[in-house]
Design brief:
This protein has 2 helices and no strands. The longest helix is centred in the middle third of the chain and has 65 residues. With 95 residues, the chain is an all-alpha fold.
């Protein structure tokens, strides 16, 4: 198949695609409502399980990491303050 044949085929599909776009898609509303109810009912226990997992597993680990980060940041701030004090002393001494 040549590129020209592919091009002609794709161009020939434009009119039917435009017609379908203008007409729209017919939706079976009762079936859609039933499917939505099924998904919603299946979603509730999953949300409960995920919520329990997050609260019991992820949050404690995150809080522990956050605490370690805060301690590290405070330690870095103390080092920075000490460096500033050292610079001040050196400047006073004229070094």
């Amino acid at each position: 198949m040549t590129l020209r044949a592919i091009h002609d085929f794709e161009v020939a599909l434009l009119d039917p695609f435009i017609a379908m776009t203008e007409r729209g898609i017919r939706i079976d509303e009762p079936r859609r409502a039933a499917m939505l109810a099924d998904v919603t009912s299946a979603k509730a226990p999953l949300e409960r399980d995920i919520g329990a997992y997050v609260v019991d597993t992820i949050l404690p680990a995150h809080r522990a990491r956050e605490g370690a980060f805060v301690q590290r940041a405070q330690g870095m701030r103390m080092l920075s303050e000490r460096e500033g004090e050292a610079r001040g002393v050196l400047e006073l001494r004229g070094v």
